[in-house]
Amino acid sequence: MRILAMLAAFVGGASMAVQGRINGELGVRFENGYAAALVSFGGGLIVLIAIAATIPRSRRGFGRLVTALRTGDIPWWHLVAGVIGGWFVIAQGLTIGVLGVAAFTIGTVAGQTISALVVDRIGFGVLPARRVTLNRLAGAAIAIVAVSLTVVVGSTRIGGEMWLLLLPFIGGSLQPLQQAILGSMQRKTQDVVTPSLANFALGTAVIALVCVVVFAGGTGIRELPTEWWLYSGGLIGAVFIAVAAVVVQKLGTLLMSLLLISGQVIAALVLDLVLPAEGQEVTAWSFVSAGLTLVAVIVSSWRRFRRSAPAPAEATTRV
After folding, report:
1. Cα radius of gyration rounded to whole Å, the chain
2. What one-character DSSP code corresponds to residue 124?
3. Is Nucleotide-binding one of the keywords (predicted)?
4. Which of 18, 50, 57, 68 is most buried when burial is the number of CB atoms within 10 A of its CB?
5. Alpha carbons 52 and 200: distance in angstroms, whole number
6. Taking a C-beta distance cutoff of 8 angstroms, is the pair 202, 65 a contact?
7. Is the torsion defined by CA of 210, 213, 217, 223 positive or negative?
8. Spatial separation of the C-alpha atoms in residues 48 and 241, rounded to whole Å
């Protein structure tokens, strides 16, 4: 079961890269990354509403969420997690068609690695404060090198559009805060689906508002693609959330995060090799940047991973 859980986590990370490629392609076909984000997030919302409506525990959890927001037990600003999710999906739609999946993933993971230092240091919600260790600082430094290398090498190929790497970097930087908020909401609602449903609901509302403004400014959609898979990004996101909720109980957050990021980075490179966006190519430097990103994650988590390893059987045996 543990091996199956590890495989599920790795595949879950790979599915996030696939989702990014789908949303990026949809943004290119629409010529409107905001509309692509609305389709993706809205699709995920529909799936989660269907799940919540059929599971009694989730219906009770949603009731607890409404009550907690009304009484202030859950601060209203915790709903900002949905805005963070919306930002991330918008970034996919706007940038992957230009940067490629690999560069987008490197920017995201680098942001996650660096901002996790701050979130862990101050603690938040259900997360206790942790001191900043030398290995975590080293991991953040390696992540910065990986992004810098992506910018320097990619700037010769992408040119003036390289600034778009800031969007996934900011999105990745906000994800540790989002995870902490959703973890706190999950504990208080006693349900896994409810925080995700709240996240998708607010994110969809924010993206829809942005789309109204964009459409009012005269920007529309070029075409409606007929390929069904271009509309599957939201479904992939919803399934990923459900799988992660089960897998984390088997592996713990640290090992699951390492496997998720590994799957995401490797799948991103494969996608750029097999199904590159128009004008994209994978070079040796792409592999170097991706490798540095994986090293940054492993280095920043190494000490905690060793401490969290189970004790040998001899040490836990009782007579």
Report:
1. 20
2. B
3. no
4. 18
5. 12
6. no
7. positive
8. 10
DSSP one-letter code for 285: H
Structural domain boundaries, residue 261: 2-305
Q: What would you measure as the largest C-alpha separation in the chain, in angstroms? A: 77
316 within some domain: no
The per-residue pLDDT for 313 is 46
How many structural domains comprise the chain?
A: 1
Residue 29 identity (one-letter amino acid): R
- At 183 the three-state DSSP class reads helix
Side-chain half-sphere exposure of 103, counting CA atoms within 13 A: 32
CA-based nearest residue to 145, from 302, 295, 300, 303: 295
CB 145 within 8 A of CB 110: no
In-domain check, residue 120: yes
- 184-199 burial, b at 16+ Cβ within 10 Å, e below that, comes to bbbebbebbbbbbbbb
pLDDT on residue 277: 63
| Tokens linked to 58 | 């989730």
Rounded-to-10 torsion of CA 147, 96, 274, 103: 0
Whole-structure pTM over 0.70, yes or no?
yes
Q: What is the pLDDT of residue 3?
A: 81
- Of the candidates 248, 254, 250, the one whose C-alpha atom is nearest the C-alpha of residue 300 is 254
Residue with the larger pLDDT of the pair 106 and 304: 106
> Cα–chain-centroid distance for residue 309?
26
Question: 168 near 111, Cβ under 8 Å?
Answer: yes
Q: Are 38 and 214 in contact (CB under 8 A)?
A: no
Q: Is residue 112 included in any domain, yes or no?
A: yes
Least confident of 157-166, 219-228, 233-242, 285-294: 157-166
What are 295's two structure tokens?
A: 């090293």
